Automatic annotation (TrEMBL):
This is Cytochrome c-552/DMSO reductase-like haem-binding domain-containing protein. CDD domains: DOMON_like_cytochrome. InterPro entries: Cyt-c552/DMSO_Rdtase_haem-bd, Di-haem_cyt_TM. It holds the Pfam family EB_dh. GO terms for biological process: respiratory electron transport chain. Gene3D superfamilies: 2.60.40.1190. GO terms for cellular component: membrane. The chain crosses the membrane at residues 7-27, 47-66, 87-107, 119-136, 157-174. Keywords: Electron transport, Heme, Iron, Membrane, Metal-binding, Transmembrane, Transmembrane helix, Transport.
């Protein structure tokens, strides 16, 4: 390999590696708060798509460099120091490429993610150790050493071929998906939505298992999720199970203190509670299959133009293409006793209402005719709150306070002793009715594992719902007593019906 060809590949490698680092740091910041100090330096928006693009580019450069080296190695005579540092670079790049594609393919992604992060820091070390000695030796002349002095038509052709091939591979990989076979059953078969899954049909249904990563409170931020699906002529049933060592139903309880009632929290003020919160599970559906939830996740503190910053700096969910994605949000306290999952959707960014602290961008609830849960306080403040209602029986210990099993709060009747806990969730009625109640669901926790059953009509005719049919793509996320810090996976899971 001639020197000028080596320099061209070297420049392309610098660009792709720096791009991979910057986008990778932004992705890591979602689950690693200590990186917040450099958040202002990182790009925002649909970062996963860019990160995959840089990954494709780096992979092609590794292949091109290896091919050139086997055919006609570039001859140089580095010092022992540079030989050692170069080997560090080679090892780092190989680990980054292999582990990154393993995460993308869901191949031992729990371990691959850890290797990927270690390899990234090795690459940062390589950058520093490799560059500083040249800068010390050559000063400003370092640019003369790393920039090509004369380019040939061949160098432009090599670059153009790599770019075109990279765009083709990126277009293919960004839309690839796993597959879940939906088993057909007779219309006469009855499946009880009770979270127990005792019916024989569940035992014979094929299982797809996906490792989800990057969540709070799970071991190493990861949990395996197994999914089964059944369908008759009218409805689709899902059986979803995931590992969770603890059953968390302690949802933002109100604690009586010397200074009045306080919301027990550890991050709720910035809408990122990770201690006093219920377990949850989310299923997103789309007729598209792009990575990052069909390109609906936008990372950063202000990733959407002309919209407000978010409090936690992690990003927003919104569809900037104008299409709607369906979102089922099961909540262990707020919806489980309703035997429902909260039927929501991800749409275009909503208008920001003045005076409302939390802006949720495209994450919104379907409409409803009646039914609701509300928080059991008048106005939230981190300094203290006034409850809306008190239980009829002061000795009751409930996760949810029913409206008709409680009475309005009056200060003169507040004789509760210091240390008393009250539920923060108040049911106005037993369950939702209308569009928001389209998904029936029930979860049961046993021996460190949640089992969740869900069912919905194939087509609800709602403009906020996605039809369940062959080609519909889904993503799943688990929350371990966390408000927004959920697990995730990259590639979609595409449904395949035999009907």
């Amino acid at each position: 390999m001639e020197r000028q060809t080596f320099i061209v590949l070297h420049i392309l490698a610098i660009v792709t590696i720096i791009g991979s680092m910057l986008t990778g740091f932004r992705i890591s910041l979602v689950s690693q708060d200590w990186l917040a100090a450099i958040s202002v330096l990182l790009p925002q928006g649909a970062i996963h798509t860019w990160h995959l693009g840089f990954a494709v580019g780096l992979t092609l450069l590794v292949i091109a460099y290896t091919g050139y080296s086997l055919r006609a190695p570039f001859r140089s005579y580095p010092s022992i120091y540079h030989k050692i540092i170069n080997y560090l670079g080679y090892i780092s790049i190989c680990l980054i490429v292999l582990s990154g594609w393993a995460v993308w393919a869901n191949f031992h992604s729990h371990y691959a993610r850890s290797i990927h992060q270690v390899a990234m820091w090795l690459m940062v070390s390589y950058f520093v150790l490799h560059a500083w000695i040249y800068i010390l030796q050559k000063g400003r002349g370092v640019f003369g050493a790393i920039l090509p002095k004369r380019l040939k038509l061949m160098h432009g052709a090599i670059t153009l071929c790599l770019v075109i091939l990279g765009l083709f591979i990126h277009t293919f990989t960004v839309n690839t998906s796993h597959q879940l076979e939906v088993q057909t059953m007779a219309d006469t078969v009855f499946i009880e939505i009770d979270g127990k899954a005792t019916e024989a049909q569940w035992q014979s249904a094929p299982t797809y298992t996906v490792t989800t990563i990057g969540g709070a409170n799970f071991d190493n931020g990861s949990t395996e999720v197994s999914i089964k699906a059944l369908a008759n002529q009218y409805e689709t049933y899902f059986l979803i199970s995931w590992q969770d060592k603890s059953k968390s139903t302690n949802h933002l309880p109100l604690l009586k203190t010397d200074n009045g009632w306080q919301v027990q929290e550890n991050g709720f003020y910035r809408f990122d509670e990770r201690t006093f919160y219920e377990d949850k599970f989310a299923v997103m559906l789309s007729d598209g299959c792009e990575i990052a939830g069909d390109n609906t996740y936008h990372s950063g503190s202000k990733p959407i133009k002309n919209k407000p910053k978010n409090w936690h700096g992690k990003g927003y969910h919104a569809s900037l293409d104008g299409k709607v994605r369906d979102l089922w949000h099961w909540k262990a306290v707020r919806t489980n006793d309703m035997y429902l999952a909260d039927d929501n959707f991800i749409g275009p960014p909503s208008e920001h209402l003045k005076g409302k602290r939390r802006y949720s961008a495209g994450y919104q609830a379907d409409g409803k005719e009646s039914g609701a849960y509300v928080m059991n306080w008048q106005w939230y403040s981190s300094q203290g709150v006034s409850p809306k209602r008190l239980p009829m029986d002061p000795q009751s210990h409930q996760a949810v306070l029913p409206w008709f099993g409680s009475k309005p709060y009056q200060h003169q009747q507040d004789t509760y002793p210091i240390g008393t806990l009250l539920p923060s969730v108040l049911y106005r009625s037993n369950r939702f009715e209308g569009d928001r109640a389209d998904v029936r669901a029930r979860g049961e926790w046993h021996d460190g594992r949640w089992t969740l059953e869900l069912v919905r009509k194939h087509n609800t005719q709602s403009k906020y719902d996605i039809p369940l049919q062959t080609g519909t793509c889904m993503w799943v996320s688990a929350f371990d007593h966390a408000q927004i810090a959920h697990t995730r996976h990259i590639k979609a899971i595409k449904l395949r019906y035999a009907l």
